[in-house]
Structures are given as structure tokens and as C-alpha cells.
Design a protein that fits this description.
Length: about 240
């Protein structure tokens, strides 16, 4: 059984694709999402085999969403687009497959056969939008808050989730993992539970135990692990 998630901001498009997939008895639709934020959570929790992903979505596009996923657990991505030339030029060499909207039964069956016959990972690193996150999507009260990466003071992993702290001292929970934020932003890994923005660091201070810690401009203390200290000193040009 191939598990699938449908991500499209158009309800009618999601409905039509669900109906088109109904005859495929070996495809199990785990759910639908109307935006990338909800999709990130569903992908982390449900781990679908394939995501049917709309390219053109507001706030976070399908391409930007891919850059927020862990490449080690990346599901197969089938792009959905209404723009023929755009799809062919930009994604022919990078997507597992793409389908033009409205999806026809013949084209869908071709994609399903490819899914059935071969599962393999794809390298999306050639897409410039994937390599660098300019803003981090976070959860607010009945909303999504976009925190500029340059405004992040530090990120902390807790048992309850990942939290982004901004310049104003506000904390924002996010669905993105630490390793993705480390790879896709300029944040520096200084501890297994912390990433820090070195541009907002006031000082690095040594402790009597041989450990060290960062102190941010706001006075927040961020621990530095013993294992990472030599690498951090080298990166910062500290002898």
C-alpha cells in the first residue's frame, strides 16, 4: 500500500484529485492539507510515501516547503501545477514527477505506475529556493507567524518541541527540525539542543569547568557543548 498526502490551497483541486485516486486500490490517502505549514506537521507525523504538492501556494510555495523537509526522510514529491512551461523548465530533472492541472486519468495512471515500479530519493539541492530559508514559519494563536531568519536570536529543542526566540524575546513553536534549520539558515549549532545567531552574540565566556557559553546582546545565556567548542572557535577565528 502506497500512502499519500495531498497538499493544495484549492479545495476543489484537492477534491478532484481525491476522486481521481479512488479507483487505485493500492493508494491510501492519509489526508489533505490546504497549506505548507499543516503539510509539514502531517509529513513528520504520518510519514507518507508520496506527497502530491501544489507548486503555487500563498506564503510558502511547494518548492520552499521541500527545503523545510529532512532530506533523509523525504517522501516522493509529485508536483501539481497549472503552468506547463514553468513545470517543464524548472522541475523536469528534479521532481519524481509532475502533473498539470486539471489532472487527467491517463496522466495520473502514468504517475502511479512510476510510483509502483520504483521508489528512490531525489536531490533538490540544485533548486536555489531550497538551499536557504529567509523566514521560518512558526505557529501563533490561530495563525502562522513568519520570523525572519536574521531576526532569530536562538532556537531551542525541548521535550515539547522546537522553539524559535526572536529579537524581541518572543518564543514561537515551529514544525521545522533543528537539523533543517542548521542546514537551511546561518544559525550555528552550539549544543545538541541549541542553534544560535552569532550576529546577535555579545560574548563567548569560558567557565571554570572547561566549558563555555554564549551571551546574546539581550543577555540570554546559550550553552556550548564541549565537543563543538573547538569547531566553533575555529569558525569564529578564536585561537
Amino acid at each position: 500500500m502506497i500512502t499519500a498526502l495531498i497538499v493544495d490551497d484549492e479545495p476543489f483541486a484537492r477534491r478532484d484529485l481525491c476522486r481521481a485516486l479512488e479507483p487505485a486500490r493500492d493508494i491510501q490517502i492519509l489526508g489533505e492539507c490546504g497549506n505548507a505549514i499543516d503539510a509539514l506537521t502531517r509529513i513528520h507525523v504520518d510519514k507518507p510515501d508520496v506527497v502530491f504538492l501544489d507548486i503555487q501556494m500563498p506564503q510558502i510555495t511547494g518548492i520552499e516547503m521541500i527545503g523545510m523537509l529532512d532530506p533523509e526522510t523525504m517522501p516522493h514529491i509529485v508536483f501539481l501545477t497549472a503552468y506547463d512551461e514553468y513545470a517543464v523548465r524548472a522541475f523536469e530533472k528534479n521532481a519524481f514527477d509532475y502533473m498539470l492541472k486539471p489532472v487527467t486519468s491517463d496522466r495520473l495512471e502514468l504517475t502511479l505506475e512510476r510510483l509502483r515500479n520504483s521508489f528512490f530519493k531525489h536531490d533538490f539541492s540544485v533548486l536555489p529556493e531550497v538551499n536557504h530559508l529567509r523566514q521560518i514559519p512558526c505557529y501563533g494563536l490561530h495563525s502562522v507567524v513568519f520570523v525572519q531568519a536574521t531576526d532569530v536570536e536562538f532556537v531551542e529543542a525541548r521535550t515539547t518541541g522546537i522553539y524559535v526566540s526572536d529579537l524581541d524575546g518572543h518564543e514561537h513553536p515551529t514544525a521545522l527540525r533543528l537539523n533543517i534549520l542548521q542546514q537551511r539558515t546561518q544559525l550555528l549549532r552550539c549544543h545538541r539542543q541549541y542553534l544560535v545567531n552569532v550576529d546577535l552574540v555579545h560574548k563567548l565566556q569560558y567557565l571554570e569547568s572547561g566549558l563555555a557559553e554564549f551571551v546574546t546582546r539581550r543577555g540570554r545565556v546559550i550553552p556550548i557543548s564541549r565537543r563543538l567548542l573547538p569547531e566553533i572557535k575555529e569558525r569564529l577565528g578564536i585561537s
